[in-house]
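2024-03-11 09:14:02 INFO worker-7 job=invfold-0412 stage=load source=structure_tokens
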């Protein structure tokens, strides 16, 4: 578990914040970066239809802070020329790495040949990768699922082809498109991809604990790992991995710090967006973040029913102060299951809708 390089860019530690539409925007990435331990952050996936038609939202999604470097922009689409133009725009805004989405299972994306739709049209993917290579000088990377369906797992073939096209890092989410988010990620296939190509390979799927993460990392022999949903439940997860890699006890935040992180996040949201949107995003993160906290289910309900920033702040204060003083909150129980947050279906469809109107598709 050593740092690895994507061309001359060192990924150190070899831990990547997995791109999540509607989640890994500027505010969330900032929150995670501040906790430490993350070696690479990636934008949400960005529609090249939106980008190349100058949709302001798509352009805004490429915004990043210098402190985030190395920073990758992920794009999606099915049209080679548009993908190449979108890639060029990402390089122009200063991204360090250009990543192509080859995994999103959302019907709206797949229907137009993008995301995991590319896994059943490798000739098209090949053209896209070659066109992008011609138009950018920053490294090109790929994030893919292992295949479209159980009967068409083609991760090795895809990875080899991508390597031939000049892709310099392959990230594999060990599920098929048809699997969606069901079952567990197949790390055997991730391992097979690692063994089949010589560019660095990172593995992804279901890492929410150090124990599981190190086990899958070691068994598969990958160069790095990506963590998505686990970072929403535990923003310190990267730092904890880094601690163990460097021989320290994993950092354990106390209740005060957990409260401070939610407030920090809310502060970023309020700087960036209208209050109504900030409230929605806060509820989304809080839903995941309360996993493992006493009375988390009831706390979440109070947040869901908060209609203003002040109400949210008051409720956060009451909840964490109750926990800090050892008093019982709600039913006093820790939930076995937290609400699932799944897929790029959860992304803001607004962007795509706008693109569809603009392109007439
Ligand atoms: C809400 C949500 C949005 C996602 N959006 C993207 C995306 O924009 N691009 C992408 O490559 N993967 C996306 N994914 C997939 C994740 O990056 C990751 O591959 C998947 O969640 C498995 O990793 P995990 O178990 O660590 O979450 C998304 C996942 C979720 C839950």
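2024-03-11 09:14:09 INFO worker-7 stage=emit residues=361
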């Amino acid at each position: 578990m050593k740092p690895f390089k994507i061309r001359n860019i060192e990924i150190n530690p070899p831990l990547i914040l997995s791109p999540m539409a509607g989640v890994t925007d500027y505010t969330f990435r900032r929150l995670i970066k501040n906790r430490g331990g993350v070696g690479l952050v990636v934008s949400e996936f960005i529609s090249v239809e939106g980008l190349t038609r100058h949709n302001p939202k798509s352009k805004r999604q490429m915004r990043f802070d210098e402190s985030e470097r190395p920073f990758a922009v992920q794009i999606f689409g099915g049209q080679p020329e548009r993908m190449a133009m979108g890639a060029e725009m990402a390089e122009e805004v200063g991204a360090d790495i250009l990543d192509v989405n080859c995994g999103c299972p959302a019907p709206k994306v797949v229907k137009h040949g993008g995301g995991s739709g590319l896994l059943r049209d490798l000739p098209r993917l090949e053209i896209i990768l070659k066109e992008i290579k011609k138009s950018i000088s920053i490294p090109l990377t790929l994030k893919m699922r292992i295949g479209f369906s159980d009967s068409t797992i083609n991760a090795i073939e895809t990875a080899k082809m991508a390597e031939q096209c000049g892709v310099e890092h392959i990230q594999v989410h060990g599920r098929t498109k048809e699997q969606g988010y069901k079952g567990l990620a197949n790390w055997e296939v991730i391992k097979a991809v690692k063994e089949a190509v010589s560019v660095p390979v990172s593995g992804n799927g279901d890492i929410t604990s150090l124990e599981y993460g190190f086990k899958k990392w070691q068994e598969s022999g990958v160069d790095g790992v990506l963590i998505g949903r686990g970072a929403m439940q535990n923003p310190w997860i990267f730092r904890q991995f880094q601690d163990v890699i460097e021989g320290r006890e994993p950092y354990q935040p106390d209740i005060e710090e957990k409260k401070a992180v939610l407030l920090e996040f809310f502060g970023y949201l309020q700087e960036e967006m209208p209050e109504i949107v900030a409230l929605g995003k806060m509820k989304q993160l809080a839903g995941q973040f309360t996993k493992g906290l006493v009375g988390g289910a009831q706390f979440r309900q109070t947040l869901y029913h908060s209609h203003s920033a002040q109400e949210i702040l008051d409720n956060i204060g009451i909840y964490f102060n109750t926990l800090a003083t050892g008093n019982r909150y709600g039913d006093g129980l820790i939930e076995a299951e937290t609400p699932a947050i799944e897929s790029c279906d959860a992304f803001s469809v607004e962007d795509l809708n706008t693109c569809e109107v603009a392109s007439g598709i």
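2024-03-11 09:14:09 INFO worker-7 stage=report msg="DSSP finds 16 helices and ten strands in the chain."
2024-03-11 09:14:10 INFO worker-7 job finished
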